[in-house]
Structure formats: C-alpha cells, structure tokens
Amino acid sequence: MDLATLSVFRAVAREQSVTRAAALLGRAPSNVTTRIQQLETELGTALFHRHRNRLSLSDKGRLFLEYAERILALEDEARQRLDPATPRGTLRIGSMESTLASRLGAPLARFARDWPDVTLDLTSGPSRPLIDAVTAGRIDAALVAFAPGDDPSEAGDLEAIPIYRETLLLMLPPDHPDMRDPALLRPRTLAAFAPGCTYRALAEDWLATEGGPPVRVHEVPSYHAMFACTAAGACLSVMPESVVALMPDRAALRTRPLMSVDTCLINRRGFDTAAFSAFRERLLEGADFTADQP
Fold first, then answer.
1. Nearest 5°: phi and psi at 276?
2. Helix, strand or coil, per DSSP, at residue 180
3. Mean of all residue pLDDT scores within the chain
4. Who is most buried in 69, 72, 278, 292, counting CB within 10 A?
5. In this predicted structure, what is the pLDDT of residue 155?
6. Is the pLDDT of residue 84 over 70?
C-alpha cells in the first residue's frame, strides 16, 4: 500500500470506471486493474462490486476511501508546508449552495488568476455534513452557517472566521394575504433542503415557536426548486436575500425578513498551508462582516 496505489484507488472510486480512471491518471487500464487487484489482495477484502459496465464501492471500499483521502490529503499538506512561500497543490473547499451561487464567483476567479498552480477541489452541501467533513479531514475548509448564538468552536477542533452576514427571508406565495399573525401562514409546508441545513433548522424553529398547525417539510434539491414550489403556492420557503436577488421573478413573491445569520470560513485548528492562506485572503477582501457588528 503506497501513495501511488492509493491515488489509483481514489480515482477508480470517483470515476466508477477503470477506463476513465486510467485516462485521468495517464496509465494503461491494465495497470490500474492490477493495482486494484493487488490492493484488494493485500487488504484481504473486495473494495468494489463489479458490474457489467461499471464499478461501485463495497461497504469496506467506502470505509477505506475515507482513510485513503485523508492519507493523500496529509501527504499534500506536508509537501505544501515544506514550501510555505508558494501556494500550490490541491485545496479542497466545501461550501453551502447559497454561498457558492451568490458570493464565490469573484473571489474564486481572482484566486485562479493569481495562483494557477493551486488546484481547487470544490464540493457543495448543507452546513452539518460540511462541518463533519472538515473535522474528519475529508476536506480542508468550508463556508458554513451557524445559528445565532452558536459557538463554532463547539462543532469540533475548528477555527472559524465570519465572512458574510446573510439576511434570511421568509418567502410566501404571490397571493398570500398580509401576515400579521404567523400562526395563519399558509400553506403549512416548508420547501427546504435535507436535514443538516442550518437555514432549514432555523426556519423550522421559527415556525414552531410562532404557533399554528405543525409544518410539513417538502425536501427539494435546489433553491430554484424551492422558489418554484413557493411561486406555485404549494410551499413556504426560507432563503438568503443574496440568493433571492438572483431569481428573475423574485418580485412576484411576498417576502418578510426573519433574521441575520453569519457565514463562516472554518478549518481544522492548525491547518495553514500557503494555498489556504491565499484563499482566505481573497475571501476577506470581499467580506461584508466587520468586527464591530454585534
């Protein structure tokens, strides 16, 4: 088990294909197949299920992939720390969908222009899974939301810097009457992401404390789907004002400000490669959060 073999395994796991992994790595497919077979023999277990046209990870394979990614990330981090003056290598960044869509376009473009030797590996997801991924070392850093009053340090051995302050808007169907009593909100269905989304948790808590019948959650895959469900009158929704501003038909829906929520850049304590420092600087250049904000 060496780093080259782990890289081969990771590529096959991601591509679910020996042929595609071989092309990505610049290796012959037969070499990739041999490497995987040797690794499975060494570990004494099957890492993949073989199907007719593709491979899929076995349960043991999924477990081993977590360790392989952490080992390869540590190897890359070690190389970067030995040459701290020049940003290079791979930087694995996670982000909420909302931040990726409405905030990161300009800083990512500047970073790519200034540091072409850094490969940015971007993933998106709800805050809770991203926090877990940073804590476990599967990614290096992430932009996540914490509920007001939450201490980011309690989420694990993490460091956190506030970058953006978002205003959450309650989105109502176009024909919804003026709302003086939140208990009269209709419909009592909330369009939201899967559990783990901070904004969903805040919306559910707010609706629960305001009274009225229980709220059912309709899980959707994107903010555009959330917006469409609300526009159709089937759901309520809660989303950041910065995302609402991207919607072409936003004026058709009724809105109400709910609360402010901070988006923080988190990383494992002590993680400080040149690439990450450069990325953090680019984010801080466009930050709208200042130290004197309450």
1. -70, -40
2. coil
3. 88
4. 69
5. 57
6. no
Q: Where are the alpha helices (DSSP H) in 103-140?
A: 105-114, 127-136
Q: What is the pTM of this model?
A: 0.80
Buried b (16+ CB within 10 A) or exposed e, 71-80: ebbeebbeeb
CB 282 within 8 A of CB 174: no
Q: Give the HSE-up count for residue 37: Cα atoms under 13 Å, Cβ half-sphere.
A: 7
The answer to whether the beta carbons of residues 80 and 273 sit under 8 Å apart is yes
Q: How far apart are CA 86 and CA 273, in angstroms?
A: 9
- What is the enclosing helix (H) or strand (E) of 223? helix 223-231
First-to-last alpha carbon distance for the chain, in angstroms, is 51
pLDDT bracket for residue 293 (50, 70, 90): very low
- Domains of the chain and any CATH numbers: 3-66 (1.10.10.10), 84-162+263-285 (3.40.190.10), 166-260 (3.40.190.10)
* Other C-beta atoms lying within 10 Å of the C-beta of residue 8: 25
Does 207 score more than 90 pLDDT? no
Most confident of 45-59, 66-80, 175-189: 45-59
Residue whose structure tokens are 């929520």:
261
pLDDT score of 152 more than 70: no
Residues 6+ apart with CB under 8 A from 20: none
**Burial class of residue 171 (count of CB atoms within 10 Å of its CB; 0-12, 13-18, 19+):** buried
- Is cis: bond before 257, omega within 30 of 0? no
